[in-house]
């Protein structure tokens, strides 16, 4: 089965996933450089990390606390300033200087927006589970067991989970808020930053004040699921996000090309409104090396129809796209959930066979060749008959 097309990387706002200039602090003369040390794969659960609320960085302060548990043993007793310098050095490697400058400009833009915009529905800006979520989802998360999750979720294809999430009243409030924000932006002649490089319509939710609500949504409601279903791609260490809405329909974006997300785990929720078409299509999970390899037809093909209020949870590296929205107006909320620990660890790995479909196929092929070679050597040595 051939690909739908060459996969694009759907890049998002790097806010929450970059770093400003390294803070230069005095350090012991003999201290090894970053390249000499690696993060621990498993966190040091006995270590109590420092707080970093006062650190000036494009990363949320929680990222530093999360990352500290993975510091090499030689760094755990270092000064707080030394740890900050070390972690900033690690985080800065994710984005080149030009991108970090763009992050800083976006940070200044967001600050200006939030100082001027007046929310329409203030109740949206704090998470109210009983008002936001359908009762069955809220109960499953409160029970907090793999069994409770699996009883609630559907898995139409390996690694893709669907479930009812938002109540209709919440969807309506969020749609109203987005519409109000867009009208305000047009009224005051303020340029709106779009969610990513592939969507020309939509808005970044964090830009007008919803960051704290989305942080809580991920920490208390998405992370429990990600820890169970996506631990191999950083599901246990989610520490930043990019949250936004996208719009499809006449005079909007019509479809979305084949791509992967700049995320470890993606939550995609249809908010409405009335529409036809717009189905998602999924075509297998791939690492960077194999992103444009063939689809395995018996295992990796899924088409999914959106339902307002219903969510899809999948790995960011799960290749997907959106069919044309043929009529009406479709709006979806997306959360790209990221793990700085996983992104650092990924640089040390060569084989992603635990989650990349092509790595798995290649591994099985190598194993089959090895078994065949062993059998051939055995027969040649006179150990048996191949007749």
Automatic annotation (TrEMBL):
GO MF entries: dioxygenase activity; iron ion binding; L-ascorbic acid binding; oxidoreductase activity, acting on paired donors, with incorporation or reduction of molecular oxygen
Domain Fe2OG dioxygenase: from-to ranges: 239-339
Compositional bias annotation for Basic and acidic residues: 1-12, 34-54
Names of the cofactor(s): L-ascorbate
Region spans: Disordered: 1-54
Gene3D superfamilies in UniProt: q2cbj1_9rhob like domain (2.60.120.620)
Cited InterPro entries: Oxoglu/Fe-dep_dioxygenase_dom, Pro_4_hyd_alph
Top-level taxonomy: Eukaryota, Viridiplantae, Streptophyta, Embryophyta, Tracheophyta
Keywords: Dioxygenase, Iron, Metal-binding, Oxidoreductase, Vitamin C
Protein name: (wild Malaysian banana) hypothetical protein
